[in-house]
Amino acid sequence: MPITPVKTLVAQAKAQITSYSTQEAAARVADGTAVFVDIRDPRELKRDGKLPGALHAPRGMLEFWIDPESPYHKDWLDTDKEMIFYCASAWRSALTVKALKEMGCENIAEMEGGFSAWKKEDREIEEV
């Protein structure tokens, strides 16, 4: 039995989640109603930097960190602000937001194009 291609999974996820352009995401963070959450691998952050002020939750631990019942829970993920997740190109972030919605998380979104789109637009990047 063939597997479902990841492109299909990402497209299905994007049809079920909220996605913001870099401009929309930046405006929400700037007005204080949202925070960026970088889900890339720590090596990517070290190599490329991150969006200014972005929090970091590696994709592999996110479900464990966000679940208040998990022994790995991180209190800083309990926020009233909208969390806007991003990765390198908005594939992992789409799957992440879909998975978190399935867990019952609300007030979450992803940023279209991810870090690559942000960088391509020559926006500010913070060194890690």
From TrEMBL:
Q: What is this protein called?
A: Rhodanese-like domain-containing protein
Q: Which InterPro entries match?
A: Rhodanese-like_dom, Rhodanese-like_dom_sf
Q: Where is the Rhodanese domain?
A: 30-127
MF terms from GO for this chain are: thiosulfate-cyanide sulfurtransferase activity
- Determine the domain of life of the protein's source: Bacteria
